Amino acid sequence: MNAELNYVQRKYHPAIGDTAPRFISRITKNTYAMVLAGGRGSRLHQLTDWRAKPAVPFGGKFRIIDFVLSNCVNSGIRRIGVATQYKSHSLIRHIQRGWSFLNGQFGESVDILPAQQRVDEEHWYQGTADAVYQNIDILREADPDFVLILAGDHIYKMDYGKLLASHVEKKADMTVACLEVPIADATAFGVMGVDEHARVVKFDEKPAKPASMPGKPDKSLASMGIYVFNTRFLFEQLIRDADDPNSSHDFGKDMIPYLVNKHRVFAQSFDHSCVGMGDDKIPYWRDVGTIDSYWAANMELTRVIPDLNMYDQEWPIWTHQEQLPPAKFVFDEDERRGTAIDSLISGGCIVSGSVVRRSVLFSNVRVNSYCNIEDSVILPNVEVGRHVTLKRVIVDKCCRIPEGLEVGIDPEKDRKRFHVSPNGITLITPEMLGHKVHSIR
Q1: Mean pLDDT over residues 217-226, rounded?
Q2: Please, which residues bridge with residue 32 across strands?
């Protein structure tokens, strides 16, 4: 088994992080990662009117999809396919610009796989399993030993090499990555039951009454939507599922429940492969699928020690690097002082005589004088006019905030013009301000 795993242990710098081994091996090199990135993410409302959810900016300079792609590259998986569908132009352009550094001469690439009716001329991607099935010819040409299925719309850092090593060690047909979630939230997940050997014995997709974990009545064991398959086994099951007229062709709804009682399906806890767990030992994983959760995840990054370490040099988050000047803060007068406190400020930003607190400013944001910005997320290429107040606000790309606007003070007034979430987070888009924007978001 040791010869088969053949992993390389990379020691981390003691000043940076732990000394856990990284499984960059023949197994990871012989794995093809399929990232499912075609969803809109409708719970993000107008934030995904012009982009797919994986293309939504996050963390000051990244896009959501950068996290799963970085996990692949850092894990030693350099053959990646990204299946796209809904309003994918900005996503495709981002991948082309930011992920072209992989070397095709060594078989490395990020293949963009838009829905193009490869199997028949009647259907686009019908479900998660169908999205993989419609690219089965590409997988056959790649000829990997293993296929890793990933969602492209979550924020986390994970060593997929450890997941693959567990899959091989247990001689599994399929392995499902899982995490513990509060039972009240488990209705949004596939919920699993496992035996003492971590073999999956039950699987319910988004159950109305989720089962609790043994000894943990307030927790459920939830699928992360991350699956490892032996390639030949995956092909057999995709073809079988495609031929089933009663299937919705989805991994969670159809394939996994079918496989659990017939084949070797195992679960691996996220605890075993999470990278950079904090002192509380709770693995960092965020579904930023609502306005409130998206805002909260960005706000967490402004803490002195956030749960997500984006400064980890051993597990970097890769992205498209724009050539921009440093952020700039100007004026030092009592009523006109350019400052940012507990905030992330990206390149190309100018804060001119205004105060920014606990906020995330993406690239090329211009804040003019006498403004007060608090607890807000401002996406790229936004200009904020003078005497503006923004509190608990998300501002979409390319907005021009007019002089004197106050948002986050009077929710009832804000609802007449903007989208206000259940937790009182206000979303502002160019269209809400009456702007016609032609740039790609």
Answers
A1: 96
A2: 147
Q: What is the pLDDT of residues 8-42, one digit of tens each?
A: 444 333 333 344 455 567 899 999 999 999 888 89
Nearest to 127 by CA among 210, 45, 242: 242
Q: Identify the residue whose tokens are 């995956």.
A: 234
Which residue carries 């091989």 as its tokens? 168
Distance (Å, rounded) from C-alpha 360 to C-alpha 363?
A: 10
**113, 135 contact by CB (below 8 A):** yes
401: pLDDT strictly greater than 60: yes
125 marked as part of a ligand binding site:
yes
Listed residue (61, 115, 124) closest to 88, CA to CA: 115
Give the Cα separation of 427 and 290 in Å (integer). Answer: 11
Could you report the per-residue pLDDT of 229-246, keeping only the tens digit for each? 999 999 999 999 999 999
Take residue 71 and report the two structure tokens written for it.
Answer: 């996990």
> 205 a known binding residue?
yes
Asked if residue 190 belongs to a known ligand binding site, the reply is yes
80's tokens: 């990646």
> What separation in angstroms does the CA of 249 have from each of 113, 126, 255?
18, 7, 7
Residue 206 labeled ligand binder: yes
CA 328 to chain centre: 30
Q: Which helix (H) or strand (E) holds 163?
A: helix 160-169
